[in-house]
C-alpha cells in the first residue's frame, strides 16, 4: 500500500441549462424502463420527465434549499405538481446512478468510507420534534460537538472523489455497524478501504478481510505504534472525502428540507447524482 500521487477534482457542475437538458434527456432514454417512459397520458404532460430531472439538478447546482422558493423563480411552475413529479422520478434517478457506476472507470487503488450527519431540525428541538418519528433519532456530531436529531449517511467514495454508493441510517448508528452491509450491497472491485478512527476494531477488520477487503484506519495518538502506523500520505488521501462531503452539502445533501421519507430519499439521490455528474463532466469531459 505504498502511495502514490493523487489528482483531485473540484466537481463543480459548470454547465449551462440547455446542455444540462440534453444530458438529462440522454440518461433518461438510456435508463428509463418502458413501463415508466410510456405510462398512461405521458404524451399530454407539458413538462417532460427529463426536463423535471434537469430542473432538480439545476436546483441542487444553484444551492437553493427550498423547493417552493425555487419554483417561484419560474412563473409557470407549480410547486405542488413539481414536488409530485420529482418524487415519481426517485426510481429513475437510482437507475441513472447505477448506469453511471457501470460506465465510470474506478481503477484507483483505494476506496474511502465515511459518514456525514443529516439533521432535520435545530438542536434546541431535539426532544420535542415530531417529524420522522420512528425513523430518525438523536446522534452526536463530533466535529461540532453537538447532539442532533435526524439521520446519518454512510458513503463509499473513490480516491479521486466519485460517490460509489451510500446508505442511510438513524443518527445514533455507529459507523462500523453499517460498513459490512454497505460493502455487501456495493461489491466494489477495489480491495483497499480507508477509514477514520471510527472504524477501529479487530472484529470489523476480520469481517472485511473474510470478504476480501483490507481496511486501513489511523491509530489514535495514545495507541501503541501510532507514529509508525499513521502514514501521512494515506491519512491525506482519507481526508479528501471531507472535501467531497463539503460539496455534497452545497448540493443540499445535508440540508435536506423534505418532510417525508420518499422526499428525503429523492433529494439525497438528486444531490449525489448532481455531484457524480459534475465529477464525470469535469474528469471525462
Automatic annotation (TrEMBL):
Pfam families: DDE_Tnp_1 (PF01609). One of its GO terms (biological process) is DNA transposition. One of its GO terms (molecular function) is transposase activity. Residues 109-277 form the Transposase IS4-like domain. This is Transposase. It comes from Lactobacillus acetotolerans.
Amino acid at each position: 500500500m505504498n502511495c502514490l500521487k493523487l489528482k483531485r477534482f473540484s466537481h463543480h457542475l459548470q454547465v449551462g441549462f440547455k446542455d444540462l437538458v440534453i444530458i438529462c434527456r440522454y440518461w433518461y432514454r438510456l435508463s428509463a424502463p418502458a413501463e415508466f417512459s410510456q405510462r398512461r397520458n405521458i404524451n399530454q404532460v407539458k413538462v417532460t420527465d427529463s426536463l423535471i430531472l434537469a430542473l432538480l439538478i439545476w436546483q441542487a447546482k444553484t444551492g437553493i434549499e427550498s423547493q417552493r422558493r425555487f419554483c417561484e423563480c419560474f412563473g409557470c411552475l407549480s410547486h405542488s405538481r413539481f414536488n409530485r413529479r420529482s418524487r415519481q422520478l426517485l426510481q429513475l434517478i437510482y437507475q441513472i446512478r447505477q448506469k453511471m457506476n457501470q460506465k465510470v472507470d474506478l481503477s484507483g487503488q483505494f476506496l474511502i468510507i465515511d459518514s456525514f450527519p443529516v439533521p432535520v431540525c435545530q438542536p434546541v428541538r431535539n426532544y420535542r420534534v415530531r417529524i420522522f418519528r420512528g425513523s430518525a433519532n438523536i446522534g452526536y456530531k463530533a466535529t461540532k460537538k453537538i447532539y442532533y436529531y435526524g439521520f446519518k449517511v454512510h458513503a463509499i467514495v473513490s480516491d479521486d472523489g466519485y460517490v460509489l454508493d451510500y446508505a442511510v441510517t438513524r443518527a445514533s448508528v455507529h459507523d462500523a455497524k453499517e460498513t459490512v452491509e454497505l460493502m455487501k450491497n456495493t461489491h466494489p472491485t477495489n480491495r483497499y478501504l480507508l477509514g477514520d478512527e471510527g472504524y477501529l476494531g479487530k472484529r470489523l477488520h476480520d469481517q472485511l478481510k473474510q470478504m476480501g477487503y483490507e481496511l486501513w484506519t489511523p491509530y489514535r495518538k495514545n495507541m501503541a505504534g501510532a507514529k509508525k502506523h499513521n502514514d501521512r500520505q494515506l491519512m491525506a488521501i482519507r481526508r479528501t472525502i471531507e472535501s467531497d462531503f463539503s460539496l455534497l452539502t452545497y448540493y443540499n445533501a445535508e440540508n435536506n428540507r423534505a418532510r417525508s421519507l420518499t422526499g428525503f430519499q429523492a433529494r439525497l439521490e438528486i444531490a449525489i447524482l448532481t455531484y457524480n455528474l459534475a465529477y464525470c463532466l469535469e474528469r471525462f469531459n
